[in-house]
Design brief:
Layout (H helix, E strand, L loop, with lengths): L2 H10 L22 H11 L15 E6 L5 H12 L2 E3 L2 H10 L3 H10 L6 H5 L20 H18 L2 E4 L3 H4 L6 E7 L2 H8 L7 H23 L11 E4 H21 L6
Parallel strand pairs: 1-3, 1-4, 2-3, 4-5
Helix pairs in contact: 3-11, 4-7, 5-7, 9-10
């Protein structure tokens, strides 16, 4: 049996850890791998393959958008750990970069360039890039901001089709809006709680910290609006909205798990 064929069969076997693909051998370059093998290699590199033996009995994805300081990222990490599934945030740019062969820095810069102050926003607000056609490597628009978003969206969709996971940010709730195996969550909190939590990580205080939170959330809203034509903090875009100040992080996790049972059946979790 050839080495490449053997790798394909391993990649098809979801009961075998993808880490085995690299065990005892030199890493193969991306050019040496088939698309299926490439995806498996990337998952191994980012430690993003779903752990075996977790609580999830079916392939379910939880997306989380959050206000800065609400603890949404912490809730996502706690949820992923409790369910025995993996957590994605910034790792998504690495995943999209390696699958596309495009430098990861271009994905990062594309995120930074989105702003409502950009006059292009008015022109594209109805085009909803998330629903547009993905351009191939031969297209002059392959590395455009819009296509970089689509490439990242394709990576998110592939994850939703292959493994249970928690995805934070990246407009994942919109990208996966037509997927039946997705629960979308928005975590928010009052200003005083956001300031209190933000102060645990940021050295600034007072109005400076308040402005930092506002600017951070505005960038999230701008990114979401630019690529989807929808409002980031609209309750219409989410299955579940949680006030982390009232619930605390642990009860937010409990609420999400309870919603999973309501949405997908009591037997969805062990």
């Amino acid at each position: 049996m050839s080495r490449m064929k053997h790798l394909d069969e391993i990649a098809d076997d979801r009961n075998v850890s993808t880490a085995f693909l690299m065990h005892g051998e030199e890493e193969m370059t991306l050019e040496d791998l088939s698309p299926q093998q490439k995806h498996c290699r990337i998952l191994w590199r980012t430690q993003s393959c779903s752990p075996r033996g977790g609580k999830m009995k079916r392939n379910i994805v939880i997306t989380i958008e959050r206000q800065y300081g609400s603890g949404g990222r912490t809730v996502g990490e706690m949820l992923a750990k409790d369910l025995g599934i993996h957590y994605y945030n910034k790792e998504l740019t690495k995943l999209a970069a390696e699958e596309s062969g495009i430098n990861e820095e271009l994905f990062v810069k594309a995120d930074e360039n989105v702003s409502r102050r950009n006059p292009l926003v008015v022109a594209v607000r109805k085009s909803m890039y998330a629903d547009g056609e993905l351009k191939g490597p031969d297209s002059p628009d392959y590395t455009s901001m819009e296509n970089l978003f689509r490439l990242q969206a394709a990576a998110i969709q592939k994850l939703a089709e292959t493994s249970s996971c928690v995805i934070v940010g990246r407009a994942a709730n919109y990208i996966l809006k037509d997927y039946e195996n997705v629960l979308s969550v928005f975590v928010h909190a009052p200003k005083d709680f956001l300031l209190e939590q933000a102060a645990l990580k940021q050295p600034m205080r007072g109005r400076e910290l308040e402005k930092f939170i506002e600017d951070t959330d505005r960038r999230k809203a701008d990114y979401y609006y630019y690529y989807t034509g929808e409002y980031w903090d609209s309750v219409k875009g989410y299955d579940l909205c949680l006030n982390s100040a009232k619930l605390g992080f642990e009860k937010c996790v409990q609420e999400i798990e309870a919603s999973l049972k309501v949405r997908f059946g009591d037997d969805i979790l062990d």
